[in-house]
Amino acid sequence: MIEHYSSNVEKIFQSATQQVGTRWHLARQKMIFSLIFSIIETRSVQFPELATKLNAAVKDPSNLRRIQAFFAHYELDYRVIGCVLMSFVTTKKCRISIDRTN
């Protein structure tokens, strides 16, 4: 599934960023895209678990440092993330559940 979408990363983010009115560098787009699929695959948001699925060609500790550095030095626009996630939904109506647990 990721192979199908990975060839269209730029197109998916282009429509999302146009809706929000921002621009993202391609490296950031690919990182967020990889993180989204890692979250789906691992069913977790814990960085060490995501690191195991992020990039198979790299050792897990390197992936973990990459994730940590990404979140330490970049402020996400969650509106774009929302638009990207909605691009995967094929139906017109959907139910969104938000957990605000601290």
Describe the structure in your own words.
This protein is an all-alpha fold and 102 residues long. It has one domain (2-86). Helix content is 64%, strand content 0%. It contains 6 helices and no strands. α4 (47-54) crosses α5 (60-73). The protein is globular, with a radius of gyration of 14 Å. The model has no long low-confidence stretch (mean pLDDT 81). This is Transposase.
Total domain count: 1
> What does the radius of gyration come to?
14 Å
Main sheet record: none
Poorly predicted ranges (pLDDT <50, ≥5 residues)? Answer: none
Secondary-structure element string = HHHHHH
Tell me the distance between the termini: 32 Å
Structural class: mainly alpha
Strand fraction: under 5%
Summarize the structure.
With 102 residues, the protein is mainly alpha-helical. The chain has 6 helices and no strands. It has helices at 2-6, 9-20, 26-42, 47-54, 60-73, 78-86.
SSE arrangement:
Blueprint (H helix, E strand, L loop, with lengths): L1 H5 L2 H12 L5 H17 L4 H8 L5 H14 L4 H9 L16
Helix pairs in contact: 2-6, 3-4, 4-5
Could you list some keywords that capture this structure?
102 residues; single chain; globular; mainly alpha; Transposase; 6 helices
